[in-house]
Amino acid sequence: MILPGTGTGQTPLTTSSVDAETYRLWQAGDWDTLVRTGREALKQGIDFYYLRYRMGVAWYEKGNYHQAAHHFRSARQYDPESELLKEYFYYALLFAGRGYEAARVEDSFSRQTKRSLDLPDNRGWHRAYLAYSYNPGAPPSAAGRIDTQTPAEGLQSVSKGYHLVNAGIEHRVGPRIWLHHSYTHIQREFSYFQNDGGERFVNPDDKIYVNQYYLGAATLIKDGLDVRLGFHFIHLLDYQSRTAFIGGRQRVTSVAVTNQNFAGFASMYRRSRLLSTGLALYAGNLNDAVQYQQDAAVTFYPFGNLNLYSTSVLSHQSERTAAGSWRSQFVLQQGLGLKLTDRFWVEVDAAFGEIRNFFAVDGAVVYNGTDAINRKYGAALHTVLSSHMQLRLDYVFMDNSSLFIPSETGLQTPETIDYQTHSVTVTLLWKR
User: Fold this and answer.
1) What is the pTM of this model?
2) CATH superfamily membership of 127-431
3) Which pLDDT score, from 0 to 100, does residue 3 have?
4) Is residue 317 within 8 Å of residue 289, measured between CB atoms?
5) Angle at 432 between CA 178 and CA 70, to 5 degrees
6) DSSP assignment of 191-259
7) DSSP annotation of 108
C-alpha cells in the first residue's frame, strides 16, 4: 500500500488528510498502518492532538508501552486535561515499569477517574517486601586447607554459610520524592585464622552477626529523569575468644567486638523509548578498607515493554586496603529478563570480575563477605500471586576465593583457597 503523499507526483500530506486517514485506521484497528502513516506525517512536519493520541493507542495495542508513553506525553501538550488520555498515559507508564512517572500522572486524575479505576486516595506507600536467604558455605574440605603455620602475619577465613532476613518498604513523601527503607539481619559462620606477631589463633566455628539499615531517596526531576541519593549503615558484632590467666589458671573467655561500616551513593537515570541509562557513584569503608566505585548501566527494551529486556552494568572499583596498598578492577554484570506467561517471568544474570567489598543496586546490596566472588551466575523466577502480591525465587551459583589478608604489604602469603557455593532466596513482594 502506498501512503497518501508518499508516491511520485502525489499531493503532499495535509492535516485534514492525515486526520481522516488515521481516524479510519483507528476505527478499523489497523495499528501497523496507523503507525506508518503517523510517522510519515510527523516526518513532513504535521503534528496535532488526535495524531499523537491515535499513534499512542496504536503502540499501546501493539504492546510497545515505551513508544505509547512517548506519544501520549506529546498529546498532553495539546490537551493536558483529557481524562481518557491521562488514563492511557498512566497505564502505558505503569506497564513499561516507570512507576514514578505513572504516580505523577495519577496525581492529576479526577476523583471520578480514581473511583472508576479503583485507586484509593492515599497512595503514600509504593511497595513492601520480605526476603529470606540461605547459603550453605564452602565444602568442609576448603576450611581444612587454611595454612595455620604460615609465618606471614594477617588473617584468613572461609565461609561456612549464612542465614539472611531482609525487609523493606518504599513510600512517597512528596509529589516527586520516594524513600526506600530496608533492614537486613545476617548470621554468618566461618572458619577463622589469624597470626598476630607469631601468636596464632584458630576458630573453626567463628560467628558474626550483621545488622544493616539502608535509606535511599529517589527524586523525579522531570519525565524520564530521576536522581537518587542514600547511605547504607552496617553494624557487625563478633564474639572473639581471648585467653586469660585467672587465679593462676588459663581460661578462654568470649569478648564482644563491634565494628561499623558505611556506604554512600548518588545515581542518575535517564529513560527513553528503548533505553534506560544510568550512572552511579559509591564510597564506603567496608572491612577496614576504603572503596570508591563508579557504575555505568544500560537497560535495553527491544519491544518497548517488559516482555524482554537486557541490563548491562560496568563497574570500576578502587580500594585502599588496611595495609595501605591500592587495588583497582572492573566488574561486568549482565542480566536478561523474559516474560513466560501473564503470571510468570524469569531473569538470568551473570557477573564477571572479583566481587569483594562491592556495591550494587544503588547501594541496597553490599558484598562485604569474608571471601571474594570471582564469578556469579543466577536465575530468578517471578510469580504473580494476585494483583498486589508477587513471589520471587532466586538461585545463585558462585565461584569463590578465600584470600589471606596480610597485615602489611610485601609479605609472602599462603595460596588462595578456591571453592564453589550457592544460595537460595525467597522474596514476598506487596505492591500497591
Assistant:
1) 0.88
2) Outer membrane protein transport protein (OMPP1/FadL/TodX) (2.40.160.60)
3) 46
4) no
5) 70
6) EEEEEETTEEEEEEEEEEEEEEEEEEEEEEEETTEEEEEEEEEEEEEEEEEEEEEETTEEEEEEEEEEE
7) T
Using a 10 angstrom Cβ sphere, with 0-12 exposed, 13-18 middle and 19 or more buried, the burial of residue 79 is middle
Burial of 196-217, coded b for 16+ CB within 10 Å and e otherwise, reads eeeeebeeeebebebebebebe
| Residue 145, Cβ density class (10 Å: 0-12 exposed, 13-18 middle, ≥19 buried) | middle
How would you classify the pairing of strands 344-355 and 389-402?
unpaired
15-116: which CATH architecture?
A: Alpha Horseshoe (1.25)
**Rounded to 5 degrees, what angle do the CA atoms 294, 299, 300 make?**
150
Residue 277 CB neighbour total at 10 angstroms: 14
**pLDDT tens sequence across 237-279:** 887 665 555 555 656 556 677 889 999 999 999 998 899 999 9
101-148, pLDDT tens digit by residue? 999 999 999 989 988 888 876 667 789 999 999 999 999 888 888 888
Same fold, 15-116 and 127-431: no
**Domain residue ranges in the chain:** 15-116, 127-431
Cell of residue 220, nine digits: 523525579
Q: Tell me: the pLDDT tens digits for 159-189?
A: 999 999 999 999 999 889 999 999 999 999 9
- State the Cα–Cα distance between residues 303 and 380, nearest whole angstrom: 21
356-378 burial: b if 16+ Cβ within 10 Å, else e = bbbbbebbbebbbbbbbbbebeb
